[in-house]
Amino acid sequence: MSRKPPEQLDPPADDDDAALFRSAIGPVREIDAGPAPPAKPRPKPRAAMAERDEANARSEFRLALGEQLLGAGDALSYRRDEVTSRVLRRLARGEYAAGDELDLHGIDAKTAENWLREFLRHALHEGIACVRIIHGKGRYSAEGVPVLKNLVDRMLRQRADVLAFHSAPTAQGGTGAVLVLLKTKR
């Protein structure tokens, strides 16, 4: 028995494959696309920019203060050159009566900064020579850094109308408060 090899059909060389396909299939009509598939659910909104800004502000805050960040139990202390060390010691012992007081407990840094500026402006306008600012010890602050305490320290050091400041005596708030001597009009 001899087998015949199957006949192989070679398409003519001059015919195009697409033309052959169309001739084999015949006329076609386009199918409607139908409804689009459902879109992926959108992610829940998140304040990503605010989170990034907060992280940047924290890192800039640390850089601005360098390694001088105060801890929860650290005392604040500062005096200008024109203020004697005796005046600073008296301030540390609480021998100056505070004419007004500002409590910054439990508020965010931006609000605290605004309140502190306004409080000092008001005290100067009223001619108050000594004020007490309660900033808290910062034991429960993020990453163990007392944010408000360091903010108050930085702001008071930058103001020309602040002559000296020192952490209050224990009976007046200890390292959670600061007594501030202001330059008054004479």
TrEMBL record:
Domain spans labelled Smr: 102-183
Keywords: Endonuclease, Hydrolase, Nuclease
Keyword Cell division: no
Keyword Transmembrane appears in the UniProt entry: no
A single GO molecular function term of this UniProt record: DNA endonuclease activity
SMART domains for the chain: SMR
A Pfam short name: Smr
Protein origin, superkingdom: Bacteria
Region (Disordered): 26-53
PROSITE patterns membership: SMR
Gene3D superfamilies reported for this sequence: 3.30.1370.110
Official protein name in the record: DNA-nicking endonuclease, Smr domain
Naturally occurring in which organism (per UniProt): Solilutibacter tolerans
